[in-house]
Amino acid sequence: VKNFLTRLVIFFIPVLVAVFAMNFYLWNGYTPNRLARYARFEEHQLVQKYASFLRDDSTSNYNTLFFGTSRIYRHVNPAVFDSLTGTSSYNLGFSNLFPFRLYDMVDVVIDSKARKDVDVFIEIAPLAQIGGNYRVLPIQNSITFERLEIAFDYLRRYENKTYQSSGVWGRNVLAFAWKYFSFELIKNVLLGDTKTHPGWDKDGIDTKGFVPLDIENDQSYLSRRHPVDHPFTDVNPKDGNSVDADLFYQFMLQRLTRLKAIGVRNVYFILPPRTFKRDRLFLVTVRRQLEKDGFKVFDLSNPEKYGTLYSKEYAFDRSHLDSGGAKLLTIYLAQAFLEYKSQNKILVNN
Amino acid sequence: MLFNSLDFALFLPVVFLLYWLVTRQLKPQNILLLVASYFFYACWDYRFLFLLIFSTLLDFYTGLKISDSSEKKGKKFWLWTSIIVNLGFLGVFKYYNFFISSFAESVSYLGLSVNPWTFEIILPVGISFYTFHGLSYVIDIYYDRIRPERNFVDYAVFVSFFPLLVAGPIERATHLLPQIKKPRIFNYSKAVDGLRQILWGLFKKVVIADNCAVYVNDIFNSSGNQSGATLLFASVLFAFQIYCDFSGYSDIALGTARMFGIELLRNFAFPYFSRDIAEFWRRWHISLSSWFRDYVYIPLGGSKGGTWMKVRNTFIIFLLSGFWHGANWTFIVWGALNALYFMPLLLMNRNRQNLEIVAHGRVLPSIREAGNITMTFGLTVLAWIFFRSESVGQATSIINEIFSSSLLTLPVDMSTSLVALLIVFIAVEWMGRENKYAIEKMFLTQPRVVRWGLYYTIAATIFLFAGKEQQFIYFQF
After folding, report:
1. Other CB atoms closer than 10 Å to residue B403's CB: what's the count?
2. Fewest CB atoms within 10 A around its CB: which of A250, A282, B71, B394?
């Protein structure tokens, strides 16, 4: 057995050497600095949506921007929202965005655009498991030791069963290795930047960044369609993990303060429906903190008020609505926004 | 826990090290295998672990009772208890909704309306496999082919040994139990061979099957809008997907078991190089085909009772084989179609004419052999269309489109890199067709640097070309 194990270790030595050599080349020879390289990979890879938006000068005309995960990307229809509120909006939601990355992208967009006096809607997103999506660059790029520590802590406290937590830890360690050994980048260098993110527009028609799952260009999404009623989500949850909401909230506050300082007009928050039960206490805790500090949160997750958004009729799968549900959610959001504006006498400056 | 997941990549080394370095005696090793197997299963859903344990206890107990009964009547009672309860579970979890909705549909043709009571139920992973394990065990005891196992741990390892627990191969007590009861000594060559087979299995699953799956899913999900050429290309890719998915799983299972000093039954023997459909069925999912042969076909009379009985029994096992795969008419039509393919060979007594390896000792097949291989593969692809389709209606529409003028167009979105990978894969399989798996003896006599070069190349290909992670197809059965 020892002989077998020794040979196995020897077998992996060249693998490690190759990985380190590739890393050395990537970080020192391939491009002059890390930031440029990241920008390069992001532009051609999974953040095309942002890259296209940033490159197009006409997108500076939008006065309202939506940011979030797929629960914004697949749910908020700018055309419907604009027709009801008179705004000119664009949906910058993106699938699998790790919450830290979400705020990075808000910064990137606001910094890059000449126009800063916009209204920004940001999803209150959970510190989702990063492990399952560790190969997705938007997640990888947002990983730092500090952020992982917070995410690990969150997951560790929730996934308290030994085998579950060991699995989560394993996946997250791999996520870490995947980034810091540059596995995905090595693949990109060797295979070229050929991949594209499917279907962020619909057949070339400008949908202002919104594509519901049931009319995706990528047909493989349809095979995942499984409409179900979402189980009841507690209005006032008691179980779950809120410990790290404080840590995350401190991070959010720093970013929000900065946004205000550079001239963003209003920052609103959206708490979408159909989130996982395990995240509910975290999300509600963040919402309460925001409200306490004077931020407006449009809470569409309340099943007592927005029960239809939890019904099978409007569902695409357990976590997402179909196009009908997305329209309904957008109408609810627009109505709540108009009501808030009229109460607070806020004018939309086009 | 999937074989192609990180969880398994952590689980396997831990169990391997404990097995060979800590629990070196037979009894602790078997206890470790049982605990590891139950943990492996519980990672999917711990609630169904109780079903597995119940099924194991049932067959262990009925096996003892059959053996201990002095009268034929008593033996028969315990045999049928086991069969009814085992098939009852299978029926409830796998077939209840199918039967009840098919019944409602058929009475609706008579103008009657019934609202069938169906339930949303999860199919326990591996239930078809471990049920067949248990059934073969009690049937073998009933026919005095084996003595009952009196050590529960040993028997439970036979049923739930983790490499074969969720998707086979379907083992026999006569083959596996003696290995479980015999002290096992670490064998360096076998362990290396096991790793090599795991590597090849991973390549088949992660590179070929998962990459084919992306294209196949896209095309089959929008089959109504696709040309005949595209549908044919997707159907051919599905043939490779299902082969590489299932045989890849089997390779990983066999390789893993070998690392623990246990040899499992071979499940695939390069079926797409078959020259007729009878040969194909001797090479495809061998453990299931032989199970049906031994426990259904032969007890029904096999081919001893004249032409009519041969035809009847052949149809029965093919239909059962289709139905075993799932509660859908598509699987039954797939089975029936294969029976029809088989029939001319059976009636002309030519079903056992291609027993040796194709082009044995030669580099290339003869033109006749190549023609026969292509014809057999074509027939198989046609049957796979039913297997893959959501309904019989969808399958017939696809076949109609394939045989239309749109066949004479170019398939859309045909990935050249995938086609290149497939060509390399077929070449490697062809070169290794005389072995248990394609790379079993590849470069084995060459210096280490060449051998390891091959392993590094395969590993790098897995790393670079890994498709989107997909569950193993046979998990749903």
Report:
1. 11
2. B71
Structure ipTM over 0.90, yes or no: no
Query: Using an 8 Å Cβ cutoff, are B168 and B251 in contact?
Result: no
Instruction: Choose the closest CB to B464 out of A1, A190, A219.
Output: A190
Q: How far apart are CA A303 and CA A309, in angstroms?
A: 8
Q: Determine the Cα–Cα distance for residues B171 and B248; give it in Å rounded to an integer.
A: 17
- Rounded to whole angstroms, the Cα distance separating A74 from A215 reads 10
pLDDT tens per residue across span B427-470: 999 999 999 999 998 888 889 899 999 999 999 888 877 765 55
Q: Which residues of B289-313 are buried (b: 16+ CB within 10 A; e: fewer)?
A: bbbbeebebeeeeebeeeeeebbeb
Report the alpha-carbon distance of residue B190 to residue B187 in Å, rounded.
5
Tens of pLDDT, residue by residue over A27-80, are 665 554 444 444 444 433 345 677 667 777 788 889 999 999 889 999 999 999
3-state secondary structure of A345: coil
Cβ contact A14–B39 (<8 Å) = no
Catalytic: which of B133, B175, B285, B325? B325
Q: State whether residue B443 sits within 8 Å of chain A by CB.
A: no
Could you give the strand order of the β-sheet that contains A89-91, starting from the edge strand earlier in sequence? A89-91, A64-67, A119-123, A266-271, A296-299
- Number of H helices and number of E strands within chain A? 13, 5
Collect all residues with Cβ–Cβ distance below 8 Å to B348 and sequence separation of at least 6: none
- Whether A124 and A298 have beta carbons less than 8 Å apart is answered as no
Cβ separation A191–B452 shorter than 8 A:
no
Q: Sort out which chain A residues have CB atoms less than 8 A from B452's CB and list them.
A: 11, 14
Across the interface, do A15 and B456 touch by the CB < 8 Å criterion? yes
Using an 8 Å Cβ cutoff, are A22 and A190 in contact? no
Q: What is the pTM (predicted TM-score) of this model?
A: 0.74
Distance (Å, rounded) from C-alpha A231 to C-alpha B45? 20
ω into residue A78 within 30 of 0, thus cis?
no
